[in-house]
Description:
- The chain is of the alpha+beta class.
- Helices cover 56% and strands 10% of the residues.
- Among the domains are: 1-155, Beta Polymerase, domain 2 (2-Layer Sandwich), CATH 3.30.460.10; 293-359; 366-420, no CATH class.
- The chain has helices at 4-10, 13-28, 38-45, 60-71, 117-122, 149-155, 165-168, 171-183, 189-197, 207-218, 223-233, 235-238, 247-258, 262-273, 279-289, 293-312, 319-326, 331-340, 344-355, 366-371, 378-392, 399-420; strands at 32-36, 52-57, 74-78, 83-87, 92-97, 99-102, 111-114, 132-134, 143-144, 157-158, 186-187.
Amino acid sequence: MNLTAEVEQYLPQHILKLVKNTSRLAYLSEQGLYLVGGVVRDLLLNHPNFDLDLVVEGDAVMLARQLAEATQAKLATHPQFGTAKLTCADFTIDIATAREETYARPGALPTITPGTLNDDLRRRDFSINAMAISLIPSSYGELIDPYHGKDDLEQQLIRILHPKSFEDDATRILRAIRYEQRLGFNLETRTAQLLKESISMLDTVSSDRIRHDLEAILREEYPEHALHRLDELGVLSRIGLPLEGGKHLAENFEKARALNKPGQLLSLYLCLAIYPLSQGENEQLRHHLNIPKKLARTLHDTLELKVHLPLLNKPSLKRSEIYYLLKGYEPLAIQANVLASEFAAACYHLNLFLNELRYIKTYSSGDDLAKLGVPPSPEAGTVLEKLLRAKLDGEIKTKEEEIELALTIKTTKARSERSEN
């Protein structure tokens, strides 16, 4: 089956031009070049995907360097793995030397050796990701589909390539469900059976690899779908993230998306997913997934703040009281509680802190206080806190009023010390 017309209609002209340029460079150096994996799948589904994967039967790093010189694209190479990435304005190209993989034991990282295109396709996870399109001039556009991925696309099936696939790499369990839910497909019958039988094999995989695949799920358009499916299968409890809330979680994820903060969305999703957990369960999850320090702090703060929300659910709280109740918490943890809490007054106060109170500062600094006769000391810190409280509560509105209050505080303290003596 030749897909030349489909390729030329699918790829934007500037990307197609670069692909043809790469094909020419590979031909001149007598190397086979193929478009592989997800982009082939998405082309056949007519889903946009302009982050391209190319496989070279030859030297991928050398080819990538030649292409970078010709295009001025940003280049990153990994010669030890035979891979390179070219980053252009609105797309990327990953170029890899065709390779064969073998697994010393279940869950181990594979041993990689150079191979053929067939070797490279054989090592992949699912049939729909094990297709290639030739970019060799003599066979340009030919679909290479040894595992009948096109048939599985038409039948809307996710199928592994061999019975030990999930044993070799149990993170494929997470990926199978991610693709199933993204595409609206079903697991092929034998694949579904082997997946369920292999869930315990997740224990053979490193924490970092599981976390990376979980993060990939959280980057999906509607990650709650995959999370609920994984929970039904018992996968999430295996990695320490049992879900509660059902429809409530989906509603909170939708609220998170409505904030339109894509750079924070993944962390916010995770805060919402762990919201029903205890702090002890959260600690187990942190260790299980080797969660980075900053994110771990945010998750901890999310649950810590949840416990203390009743203190914030009082309509009569002063602005300064709200500030000092919340100032130590990570902003994303506060945002997660806004989305997940059912305490109306508390949510109002959380939003007030996020949108206004946390940005309020005193006009005066420690140096300003020193000029007024309050040298750097714990006393100066106390004065600055009193000034900030007054500003938060609207008791002072100008720098002059703040200086006057600072002098009053200083004078009152001096009188108190004299009377004690």
